[in-house]
Input
Amino acid sequence: MSSFQTSPGTRDILPPHAGRWRALIQVFADGVESAGYQNIIPPMFEDLGVFQRLGDATDVVTKEMYDFMDKGGRHIALRPEHTASVCRAFAQHRPTPPWKVWYSGPNFRYERPQAGRFRQFDQVGIEVLGVDDSQLDVEVISLGWDFYQAIGLSNVSLVINSLGDAGDRGRYVEALGAYFTTHSETLSEQALATLERNPLRVLDSKRPQDASAIAGAPAIGAFLSTDAAAHFAAVCAGLDALNIPYVVNERLVRGLDYYQRTTFEFISGSLDSAQNAVGGGGRYDGLVEDLGGPATPGIGFALGVDRTLLACDAEECFSYGIPALDVFVIDTTGGSHALSITHQLRHSGFSADRAFEGRSMKSQMKSADRSGAQVAVIIGDTEAEESTCTVRNLSTSEQTTISSTELQSHLETVLGPRQPRRHTP
Ligand code: AMP
Output
């Protein structure tokens, strides 16, 4: 007999945790939709080329891509993030800018699994295409900040930096390359390999051996053009005006190569420092053009759902229980009363569940208690004969027998008025 387990780096999100997960996404959706962002659902896989635009110096592209040839001979990749897909969608459909969208869903990266680092992980995020205004940077950052506040996380800090315009970034990378090359004898083997590919990413090294070279490295601030410096100053001033606390860290470069100008990260002080980034984002003014669209400024962020919930666990916030039911229907007649009453109650807008397999009264009462329902509606032989039902308050054990025709109005008196379940756009 074979038995299967989840693949490394993947997990089953079981109930009730999956309900908490969905509630988290709902808080995010409510926040960003009230700021004018609309939901986008891009496909989970794309032509590999879409993601190669993230930069051939990033680990995400060179080492972590889940790519394969499909049966039609296309080179496909499971998305490692959403931003490239959103930019591809913009280039393909050409919506009128500004285009403000939000998303949620899984991404796939072949990473070394560890606490807070998975091969399939979820993100929620927003992207705005077509606006170059520094006030938008402030709006985007503030929506991320507000989300963490809304779910009750208090130990999250915001770190920001500017990577300058493409030209500034280029000159800075050159200067960093020259600097690290002169310090190459002190660098770790891994940092030397990174230096070959992208000197900027050496700043990301957490190895103690690289710390002193990194500490003495030139900082981006001195390389910013007047425009980029003014943009960054305006972003900082906007955050100040909104009373959002932040720290400027000129070493913040972020994992993906496409960022220009504003970059930021949300760090949880309650998680292990190796995996403490709960979200991050920035401007990527050249990405739409790289994907075949018109030159379009873009900015966004992605927040890690898995890690954000780990931070909630650590801070004991955003707790979630089993969703309470209104009614549990108990039928000991062996007939179909439970079937029709449950059906009717659900249609009238009550949440209702029942037991199956003609269990004993005792067993059905146990299920009713376990369900968290507020009341049980009981149909025994007497009730069936007299067309009545007994309504029992499951917390006080008080019960009363009423005519079946009064059930709905009685429950509305006890539990509050309900609307028939129907989609209202
Ligand atoms: P990135 O797309 O790399 O900028 O990541 C944005 C956020 O997604 C990070 O701050 C993490 O919270 C989360 N994240 C990225 N990679 C992983 C992963 N392998 N496992 C879990 N969360 C991740």
Summary: The pocket of adenosine monophosphate is lined by residues 81, 109, 111, 116-118, 121, 123, 255, 277-280, 302, 304, 306-307 (CB under 6 Å). The two ends are 49 Å apart (CA to CA). Residues 17-165+225-315 form a domain with the BirA Bifunctional Protein; domain 2 fold (CATH 3.30.930.10). Residues 67 and 77 are 4 Å apart (CA to CA).
